[in-house]
Amino acid sequence: MAFQYQLLHNDLSTRARLGRMLTAHGPVDTPVFAPVGTQATVKTLTPAEIEEAGATLVLANTYHLYLRPGAGIVQRLGGLHRFMGWERPILTDSGGFQVFSLEGLRRVDDEGVTFRSHIDGSEHRLTPEKAIEIQEQLGADIIMAFDQCAEPMDRAGAEAAMRRTHAWADRCLAAHRRADQALFGIVQGGAFADLRAESAYVLSEMPFAGMAIGGLAVGEPKEVTWAMVDVTVPCLPATRPRYLMGVGSPEDLMEGVARGIDVFDSVLPTRLARNGAVFTRRGRLNLRNARFAEDAAPIEEHCGCYTCRHFSRAYLRHLLMAGEVLGLVLNSIHNVAFLTGLMSEVRAAIAEDRFAVLRDQFLSSYTPAPEEERLRQRDAYRERRARERSGPEDK
Amino acid sequence: MAFQYQLLHNDLSTRARLGRMLTAHGPVDTPVFAPVGTQATVKTLTPAEIEEAGATLVLANTYHLYLRPGAGIVQRLGGLHRFMGWERPILTDSGGFQVFSLEGLRRVDDEGVTFRSHIDGSEHRLTPEKAIEIQEQLGADIIMAFDQCAEPMDRAGAEAAMRRTHAWADRCLAAHRRADQALFGIVQGGAFADLRAESAYVLSEMPFAGMAIGGLAVGEPKEVTWAMVDVTVPCLPATRPRYLMGVGSPEDLMEGVARGIDVFDSVLPTRLARNGAVFTRRGRLNLRNARFAEDAAPIEEHCGCYTCRHFSRAYLRHLLMAGEVLGLVLNSIHNVAFLTGLMSEVRAAIAEDRFAVLRDQFLSSYTPAPEEERLRQRDAYRERRARERSGPEDK
């Protein structure tokens, strides 16, 4: 079945919109949050748990799967859906983001990127054609054009990366063959409004099934992120879904939806979960905190997720303190369910033209992690990854 | 509801028997294999997964839960069933086995054992009365007397430990209060037939609800284990369930059932799973092996477990090679389901007086891990634990 996007309703007082993507593996109601399954597994969760947590779309990383186990193996085993036991829609990225985060290990030219594997140091080359070929072997329902992500504040670099991204976009479209896969283009342009608008216009002229906004949420201030989204969205065709890559905090989902974004993905809910941090309507809790040692309440009252239906904060804290894997599993279930549940509320609110009220209510009671804390955690994470030589960054 | 054991059928050609234990949290058909949830979690599995894997009884460790989170906390949170979200029967050990494995960290006298926590070095004391008190706080359906486990080959040590175990058994019975908990006694006596028989007779005279055989499967040769079981079982009353502690390989379950054992527990299925080793009817497979890289088959054809219904050996190998937690989860599900499924077949065979045929068929096609490999893995495990100072040994 060919991909289709149905725009169902525009919110009256914001740019939020209700829609549905029809894919070869079923429908996805939008706005949607997609958890990330970097290595063909949403970390710690079974497909049954992912589905029960309300996810309808998951993302997998081309870079990782290309290196291990290899796209040919996945193809011969029946494709990514069968391989990972997830029969609902899947989106793969192009590998571009990971490759460009491999500092010191990659060399870019107009043809493509040569890089070294973070696993064994072996040399590989990704081009637009190769990125499409790999994604066709993996077999996701939505695949992404190969783009160049640059430092957002460097004008010359951002402009060069944008032009290269446009040239590569043409080559990706030319290389794209499988009719059951929808190919999305990726807007670049760094932190520069004129570049973002240009990129959006240029790519919108090309026959992409959907439009992504890339190169944001990579460390720049939030105001810059939203300013770039505000410039970009009006330049995109209303008839195609819009995907803001790598964004997934509850407050950012609200801000993004209000600006007309339909699709989000992020490792945030599962990564936070593995650090012991869980979402509530009032903000994050860190379950390692001693004050939860005898707390018989669930993470959140009235949350319908498996974790909140069965376990106390005290038990979850015990699992974390004892180093038990089940703690990571149960926290991940809750955090994914929290975001998918939030998006479900968002869709219901848009349908009734009351999204602005929902957003304001949510943001007035939800205290985001302080920016300082957010940056501290990001840096700690980057350092740890560098220490572990555990490869490129996942957003 | 008071505990009850119903002996339903004796196999015609072996000592195997079919029975049912009625507990405050429901029935347990025997022979049964109980997976171990050391720290109030069967490692990596949710209660929903444990139940789907066919487990009807799980074990939790008093030593671990006493130290962390503390038995009082578990009690105030509603007891172990509620704490860990497992509403079916639970068995707790007495803490004795763990305390006696804390070499260099414990001091034993006739009153009890003084030991240091492996977590923070703090000093604690366990006595028969204290072990019962803790187990009453935890609230399992089946609780164990506090016993002394000794080196099986040292006659004087084994005899002294046995006599102390008998004295402590009396004190445990006197301390035992909760009518909804069944207290089991533990036969000791090392590797000496006359001591084993004496211990079985002495403890059988006491009003225990069930009889365990302790101090075996601690490194002695298998022939010794089975010789001691062969001596002990005929000295135990037929009207009470018999529990062989710490035994759980498929071949040992068959041998134990044939000798009249009703209850088994072991960390083996979950520990092997985390090492990448999974059970099949022909023997263990190590899924890290390169030959599984493109193997589209499930671990075992016709296995009905969640893992085998959805995933290939190639995917499981990928998860292991990529260091993904889901690999541990899926392997654990399979290994627990394999043993519970085997016990289900065993019960059906006993009911039809064809257990000996089932055992012979099973053992003729199942290749156990070589003794040498088994000892090597055990030693590697002990060394790793010693290095990690991760505490006492779990069987």
Characterise this structure.
Two copies of one chain form a homodimer. With 395 residues, the first copy, chain A, is an alpha/beta fold. In chain A, 43% of the residues lie in helices and 17% in strands. Chain A contains 16 helices and 16 strands. In chain A, the strands form four sheets. In chain A, strands 4-14-13-12-11-10-6-5 form an eight-stranded parallel beta sheet. The relative contact order of chain A is 0.14. The model of chain A has no long low-confidence stretch (mean pLDDT 94).
Task: Give the helix/strand layout.
Two copies of one chain form a homodimer.
Chain A: E1 4-10, E2 17-23, E3 26-30, E4 32-35, H1 47-52, E5 58-60, H2 62-67, H3 71-76, H4 80-84, E6 90-92, H5 96-101, E7 106-108, E8 113-116, E9 123-126, H6 128-138, E10 142-144, H7 155-175, E11 182-187, H8 193-204, E12 210-213, H9 222-232, E13 242-244, H10 250-258, E14 263-266, H11 268-274, E15 277-280, E16 283-286, H12 306-310, H13 313-321, H14 325-351, H15 355-365, H16 371-388
Parallel strand pairs in A: 4-14, 5-6, 6-10, 10-11, 11-12, 12-13, 13-14
Antiparallel strand pairs in A: 1-2, 2-3, 7-8, 8-9, 15-16
Helix pairs in contact in A: 6-7, 7-8, 8-9, 10-14, 10-15, 11-14, 13-14, 14-15
